[in-house]
Amino acid sequence: MLDVRKLRLLRELAHRETIAAVAEALNFTPSAVSQQLTALEREAGVPLLERTGRRVTLTAAAHGLVQHTETILAVLEQATAELAAGRATLTGRLRIGVFPTAIRTILAPALVTLSTAHPELELLVTELDPALAPGALRTDALDIALVQEYDYVPVAPDPALDTEPLLEETVYLAALSPAPLSTHRDTPWIAGTPGTLCHTMTIRTCQAAGFTPHIRHHADDFDAVLALVAAGQGVALIPQLAIHTPPDAIHLTPLATRRRTHIAYRRGTAHHPTIHAARTALIPGRGER
């Protein structure tokens, strides 16, 4: 019989590509992950990993096993959800992952709703870049999260997760004077930290307009970005949720680019009482689904 815990490690290796990354995500040592994967190979009776020096890749058999693993884990999550549905009161922890600009406008009202309706439910909020949320959901560090994608930065579906649309926003060009995006070819730019969705979105949106931006400053807090724009340090792209009290000196030009926010949770958990309560609170007026 294959060990579900070892299958989780194989699934994470398929996503993260290195044993070191899997170990860091799951708080194991690399040697422990390697030993568990070797044991899984013995249980499977076929090679699952191809090793070249320090690099490992999954065999065709391993990729097939990962697909089965997604189904197995989703069924287990669904079974857990059905058991939880028999309880009269919502208790325990609900771990929510959210990106910064959604805390004030989306999450705070939902937390009030959840706290009022389910006072014995412990709510734990973690602020993180949405690019990190899928991994945190897969490894059970979060129960539900808000994830996002931009035009020009689509996010590939994760077979471990289910998502549903929550919000679509306009992206604005923040500058000291109104002008088309294409006129800022030689202007200094302000963008997020490299590797974040906001940074990638800035580059790709500009490239779609025919140029690659010269990024002078990096900042992930949109209030800081707007302050830098107001100080004449460059221009930036700002999603609608981040624009609550922009400096008077800034002109905001709406672009065709959009940011889309989705609610994400592990497959099989949609009807778990706590996840269902969170989904309902995040989309007021949605009714029963």
TrEMBL record:
PROSITE patterns: HTH_LYSR (PS50931). Keywords: Activator, DNA-binding, Transcription, Transcription regulation. GO terms for cellular component: protein-DNA complex. It comes from the Bacteria. Residues 2-59 form the HTH lysR-type domain. GO terms for molecular function: DNA binding; DNA-binding transcription factor activity. Belongs to the LysR transcriptional regulatory family. This is HTH-type transcriptional regulator gltC. It comes from Nocardia otitidiscaviarum. The lineage of its organism: Bacteria, Bacillati, Actinomycetota, Actinomycetes, Mycobacteriales.
